[in-house]
Design goal:
four-stranded mixed beta sheet, two-stranded antiparallel ribbon
Amino acid sequence: MLASKTEGRRKLYSVNNTHPLTSDLTSIVRKVSGIDALVERVTANLPSLEQVWVCGDLAKGLPSEYIEATLVGADLNRSYIKQLTDKAQSLTGKTITVKVEEETKLSGVKDGLLVWQKLDEQ
């Protein structure tokens, strides 16, 4: 369920995206980290949001003073996103960087963890 690699004397672990339980593990991480509540609030106020990615060290399961996120969707309200980012920074004491993309670009989220995706409405 985990993939690992060695960097110097450290062994780094990440979720193995090809494992059949990846979506379940992602859900557990969201609930444990509190990201799920934040994502639910953000998605309710950004109807054109398609995906939310957590990137950087947090996506790798490492502790970090930085939160990096990528929001994917057309015509997202950037001032609302900035307002939320500022509020979250003051509450967490962490530096938060949010990148907004019109569509998923693999290069932009290659080290990311997909924490929310809009379900296709049929």
